[in-house]
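Thread: Newbie trying to understand structure tokens

Hi all, I'm a second-year student working on a class project, and my supervisor (Dr. K.) asked me to get a predicted structure for one chain before our next meeting. I've only ever worked with sequences, so writing a 3D structure as a token string is new to me. If someone could post the tokens and maybe explain what I'm looking at, I'd be very grateful. Here's the chain:
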Amino acid sequence: MKKATKMVEEITKKRKMTQEVKEKLNQKIWLNLCLAIGIMLYFCIMDAIYLYVPSDISAIALKILAMVAILLTVIVFEVAYRKENGALGIAGIELLVFCVIGLYMPHIYAHSDQVIGRIFLLTPLFCALYYASKAVVIYIKTEKSYQNHLSDVKEIVKED
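---
Reply by user tm_fold:
Sure, no problem. This is what the structure looks like when written as tokens:
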């Protein structure tokens, strides 16, 4: 009986993620967190311009800000293509979606009613929820992948 419990303890100890895997996982989550903070700041700046700058100037400023973000997205796509980096390509797609939302925000602010404009002020919150759920999915997926790549069969057969 002691041998079985000892074997179970050793297997559970080996199933824990190694420090290297944890560091890679933390790096992925940290990069997504930085991207989320950047996008949320972008939308907060857009919201502040909408709320506190006169409407004739804010429309131009919002369009310029959206175009700068689109340019940044194109640069991210170029770097992802040249480095053949799929994760950077996915980040580029996310940036593109948020930039399209940012591109339409001046039109929505100017031509829709107050309720819809106020809903779009919550875009940074939606962004935070998206990236928080993405971090959880990355963590779970990495842990499952690590667990699936471990093989306990060799150890169990060797012990018997």
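A couple of things are worth pointing out once you decode it. The mean pLDDT is 81. The chain has one domain: 27-159. Feel free to ask follow-ups in this thread.
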